[in-house]
Amino acid sequence: GAVVSQHPSRVICKSGTSVKIECRSLDFQATTMFWYRQFPKQSLMLMATSNEGSKATYEQGVEKDKFLINHASLTLSTLTVTSAHPEDSSFYICSARYRAWDTQYFGPGTRLTVL
Amino acid sequence: KQEVTQIPAALSVPEGENLVLNCSFTDSAIYNLQWFRQDPGKGLTSLLLIQSSQREQTSGRLNASLDKSSGRSTLYIAASQPGDSATYLCAVRGAQKLVFGQGTRLTINP
User: Fewer CB atoms inside 10 Å of the end CB: C or N, chain A?
Assistant: First the structure.
C-alpha cells in the first residue's frame, strides 16, 4: 500500500518559536493533502485541505496565520505552527490522496509539545 | 453537516470473545466508509474500506458491514486477542473529506 511519512515524529519547543512539520508521500503523487489535529482521547479534526500548487482551504475556526500550510510539490506538504503556545500542543497527522476518489493514506503523526 | 457517532465509547472483553463495534452517520450520501485502528500515540492503520455500493468487506478476523440507507456500519471482530486492544475509528467519506467518529477504545483482557 501507499506510504506517507511525517518528520519529525516528536518535537518539543519553547513558547513563541515556530515549528515546521513535513509530510511526504513516498510512492505516489499526492494531488491533495490533509492536515488533522488530535487531542488526547479524542478523534481527528480536519484543520485544512491543500491541493498541489494552490492555497490551502482551512476549516472553520482554524487560524490560517498560525497554521501555515504549503503544498509545493506532489510529494511534499508542510505545516508550520507559528509562534507556538502551550495550547498548540497536540498530535498532528497528515494524510494524502492521489485522485478525488482514491483512498486517503495517513502518516504516523507528529507529537508537538510546547513548553 | 455529516456527523459520525460510535458506540460504545469504550469496551472491555475477555480474550476469545466475538464483538461488534457500531458506527452511525447522519447523511447517507457517502462515497465510502472506512474503519481504522489507532494504537496509543500512533497514527492510523486502515483496516477495511467499504465503497457505497458494497454491503460488506472482510479481512481475516474482521468483517465490516454497511447499511447506507439506515446510516449504519458495524465492525465485527472474531475470536478477539489481546493484540486487538486499540482505539477503532470509523470515518465516512463525503464529497470532499473524511468525517471521523469519536472512536471506540477496545481492551481485550487475557
Answer: N
